[in-house]
Amino acid sequence: MRRVTPDLMSLNTATVKQQWNLEQCIEGCARHGVGGIAPWRDVLHEMGVSKAAKHILDAGLQVSGLCRGGWFTAEGALTPAVIDDNKRAVDEAVELGSACLVMVVGGLADGSKDIDGARAIVEEGLAKTLDYARSVGMPIAIEPLHPMYAADRACVNTLRQTLDICDKLGEGIGAAVDVYHVWWDPEIQEQIKRAGKERLYAFHVCDWLLETKDMLTDRGMMGDGVIDIPALRKGVEAQGFDGLVEVEIFSATNWWKRDPDEVMQVLIERGATAC
Amino acid sequence: MRRVTPDLMSLNTATVKQQWNLEQCIEGCARHGVGGIAPWRDVLHEMGVSKAAKHILDAGLQVSGLCRGGWFTAEGALTPAVIDDNKRAVDEAVELGSACLVMVVGGLADGSKDIDGARAIVEEGLAKTLDYARSVGMPIAIEPLHPMYAADRACVNTLRQTLDICDKLGEGIGAAVDVYHVWWDPEIQEQIKRAGKERLYAFHVCDWLLETKDMLTDRGMMGDGVIDIPALRKGVEAQGFDGLVEVEIFSATNWWKRDPDEVMQVLIERGATAC
Q: Could you say which of B146, B225, B227 has the minimum Cβ distance to residue A147?
């Protein structure tokens, strides 16, 4: 198991989204010696993709993932607009030299209770995006989200389900394993083994706070919650995962309110002590 | 598939916990023609077990379940106090003539991040309780809780996991399937089939609200959320489940604030139209 030194860490820009724009995130990573970055598309578009790609390259950062493609159920049926947007996301990931494009697949279509139907739309959308992504060599990483987001964000909710989809779709598609979403799963270690190095594209960390006050924006800093993060990292690294440890914390009442350089210092420290 | 008439429904007392004590719940069920009741132990103790049993019998109600045994991790290791309390819960369920004793198994032990350890404690606790429950003929129903409660309420979080435990422990133990906890699970129908009639002891309904504002106390009335309840009921009834449809809604800002007779009217109506 590796020691999580700053150069093995990546900053997901959502972690300091209230404090820093993308340019500041890039500078911050460079200043603190953090090895990589994972931008969200909104901040990427704000800065401009080419400019961002150049700054990231100049700063010597890796890109552990681009957040996010997916949202296939946004318009009910799978529309050309949704597919086109996913292709653009693939292109952006390529331009950034990203390790993968992370997919948050979307929840139930508006007004629908048909989760099987949503899952069918998602699978079709992934297949179509994958066709394009393969042609440009960009790995697609499905991020299974915690079941509490099944209705409104992602109807792919376990690593088993993710890998079942990957098995159907073939090469070039795998998983982004975020400890927040999977820590509770009694078969997570077994499914990580099933994934193997060839399906493990990203590893995200934060923590589950015992008294979670908001389902979306109350995630904890590593070490402040109940997730046995080292056990999960050990699992993915035992399969040969050698990508960055990406820190993605949504925290409206705590970390988003702090000095971003303090956030960087703490996450680096917790990389060493709590991951 | 049955028509859900009031006589096939059961009122879990938590649904009107802010408005009615157990005696009022019993009277309310009788007045509205609801066929059964599922008391929580706190309100049961408040009324007195023998008195409650007599009133329930006199009112002609069935008892679809006693909520709840379990909480095996409450004291870290499995203590005699915890086992004794579970045995008392079994006795109470017997005295009420309950269809089963519902188990909310407990989450992580205080200060622990060891979910595998918690699960081992739970399995031991279930085994010991089951030994006793078998001797008095009371079925034990494990209620897998939604993964968002894995840390603080129950580390048994899927029907698959529940049935794996049942397979290890043998006869007399099964599942309480609550649509709120399992609706998101991509293999729920498959696992319901695996359970079969002999492992399906209870069926609970409420709904998942699209904008859930509180992880514990913002459940919806059947029909107000996104769960395809009829599909799940069809699944359990296809296996031969013929117990009551138990309504269990925790709703601090809505249903707990309404006139309880109105709550009864609405849940009866929704039994017919949304279950």
A: B146
Closest chain B residue to the Cα of A112, Cα to Cα:
B226
Q: How many helices (H) and strands (E) does chain B have?
A: 10, 9
Q: Do B150 and A183 touch (CB under 8 A)?
A: yes
Q: How far is residue A5's CA from residue A199's CA, in Å, rounded to a whole number?
A: 24
Question: Would you kindly state where each structural domain of chain B is located, as residue ranges?
Answer: 6-274
A contacts of B187 (beta carbons < 8 Å): 160
Please indicate whether, in this complex, the C-beta atoms of B186 and A119 are within 8 angstroms of each other: yes
What confidence score (pLDDT) does residue B22 get?
98
- B112/A226 Cβ within 8 A: yes
At B196-223, the pLDDT tens digits run 999 999 999 999 999 999 999 999 999 9
How far lies B139's CA from each of A205, B50, B102, in Å? 41, 20, 9
pLDDT at B13: 98
Helix, strand, or coil here: B157? Answer: coil
Q: B6-274 adopts what CATH topology? A: TIM Barrel (3.20.20)
Instruction: Give the integer Cα–Cα distance in Å for B160 and B164.
Output: 6
Residues of B in contact with A183 (CB under 8 A): 115, 150
Of A113, A114, A210, which is closest to B151 when you measure between CB atoms?
Answer: A210
Distance CA B23, CA B21 (A): 6
What ipTM score was computed for the predicted complex, to two decimals? 0.97
Strand A9-12 and strand A101-104: the pairing is unpaired
Q: How far is CA B262 from CA A64, A214, B19, B224, in A?
A: 54, 30, 11, 16
The C-alpha atoms of residue B22 and residue B17 are separated, in whole angstroms, by 9
Contacts 24+ apart (CB under 8 A), A79-83: A82/A125, A83/A125, A83/A128, A83/A129
Contact between chains at A112 and B184 (C-beta distance less than 8 A): no
